[in-house]
Design a protein that fits this description.
The protein is mainly α. It contains 5 helices and 4 strands, in the order ααββαααββ.
Length: 256
């Protein structure tokens, strides 16, 4: 009985769409969407309520294992030992020396990359875009014939001179076949040249963007290297500086 009831074709109930005047508000929310959103909202609301209760009932003097390695300063600020060992003065100077060497190497690599990219950009600006046919022959629209000796070249030149006067008549006799092929070939060549020019332009724009990024990176690396050099000099008491209290000091050389 149930199989016969399922065999009967039922009406397809379609959901109401968003009216045209309310399309700016996005997709129309259905009841199932509202149910999911309300359920998620209520769960978050219950979770926040539980957290507020825990925070209100919390005992600050209750023991926890973080109290073992922590201490307070001035009765309020908690200080914890994270297990970090204090480096010696000489070890810290050595680390800063290694950092300065790394920054110096990276700055040199960035400088070489910038100079190479500048050369490519300059060469690309002055290089004309031309379409090459087979065997790297520029597309000038001329037919190139290769001969083996001077005699063949002279005979071919005489044959071409004799046939030049017959070209007009032969072209009219051959019909519109040759006259139709040449404009199509020229149009294809122009289209390919336009494509190459666009590609060349995009390549140059990408090079300019990369060059600007390399210049910024080189400037930042140089500034970081100079700052490290100043810190190492201050640690070695070879230059002056400013204390935490704001007092300026400088190294005075012994009079000879």
């Amino acid at each position: 009985m149930s199989s016969m009831r399922n065999a009967v074709q039922r009406r397809n109930h379609k959901e109401r769409a968003q009216p045209v005047e309310r399309e700016k508000w996005g997709v129309l929310e259905k009841h199932k969407d509202y149910s999911l959103r309300a359920k998620d909202y209520n769960e978050k609301k219950k979770r926040l309520k539980i957290l507020r209760e825990k925070a209100a009932e919390r005992n600050p003097d209750e023991f926890h294992f973080g109290m073992i390695d922590s201490k307070t300063r001035n009765g309020g600020q908690k200080l914890g030992d994270r297990g970090n060992k204090v480096l010696s003065h000489d070890a810290l100077k050595l680390l800063k020396t290694q950092d300065a060497g790394y920054l110096r190497i990276m700055a040199q690599k960035t400088t070489r990359a910038r100079e190479r990219l500048e050369q490519e950009l300059v060469l690309g600006e002055g290089r004309p875009v031309e379409l090459l046919r087979e065997n790297n022959i520029p597309g000038t629209g001329q037919h190139v014939v290769y001969v083996g000796s001077q005699e063949e070249q002279n005979s071919f030149a005489r044959a071409g001179a004799r046939g030049k006067g017959d070209e007009d008549g032969s072209a009219s006799q051959a019909g519109g076949e040759r006259s139709n092929v040449i404009p199509i070939a020229d149009e294809r060549i122009l289209k390919e040249e336009r494509t190459l020019r666009k590609q060349h332009k995009r390549l140059q724009e990408a090079r300019r963007a990369k060059l600007e990024a390399l210049r910024v990176r080189e400037r930042d690396l140089t500034a970081a290297e100079q700052e490290l050099e100043i810190q190492r000099a201050r640690m070695g008491n070879s230059i002056g500086g400013v204390t935490k209290a704001g007092m300026k000091w400088k190294v005075r050389e012994r009079k000879k």
